[in-house]
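Deliverable D5.2: sample structural annotation.
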Amino acid sequence: MLRIDRRGGGIADLVIARPEKRNAMSYEMWSSVPGLCAELDADDSVKVVILRGEGAHFCAGADIAEFGERRSTADSAREYGDRIESATHALGHMSKPTIAMIQGYCIGGGCELAVACDLRFADSAAEFAITPAKLGIVYAFGSTRTLVSLTSPSFARYLLYSGNRVTAEHALRVGLIDEAVGADLLEKTTRDFATTIASRAQVSVRGSKTLIGKIAAGLDVADEEAANLPLLAVDSEDYREGVAAFLAKRPPHFR
């Protein structure tokens, strides 16, 4: 199952809670992600979402034990793939920043969930792999595009052709993750950064997220929405508070 833990301070956790299976994602779990993302997006008290696994691992991927029933024909594989694509699309297109907090295994579908997030902080002992070549599966287009844009075509080939595991050090070097710290520091480092984001002007944070998403998707020239975002921000309470705080030489208090 997945659940929402509201932590206060503008932060909520989306928890992959199946530790007895190393948090492997079942069909029902994939299916539940869009609704949970919509719930978090609609909650005005939540400014940052941390995706994490319960227990020792982030996520060991899709539950392969289900494939005989759920993914045995082209039609059922299409339906199963649609569930995964809907889950990663919902996570990747939330209006609020998302951070994957990764410990232990981040394998296959677990990597898909992690790369759908805005940022990835990992335990330095975490292990990463994307394993379709071990299963006779072709990785989905959307997830492959995200992986390529996040790292490089060469590293995407390295992962997808081999299915081999890589260390957090390797993942950090190629841009798959944003920070690697000791296990004892992972939660504090992740939550401190989430708290920083939650304290900033949300009109700026969400505007930046929208623009970066458009650029990553291939937009070269600003469309109407992208052009208007900086202008709309001028009418926001965040802008008024930010300027007033700067002039008064005090910390801003964004709502």
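Annotation notes: The chain has two domains: 2-197, 201-248. The mean pLDDT is 96.
The annotation will be released with the project's public dataset once the embargo ends.
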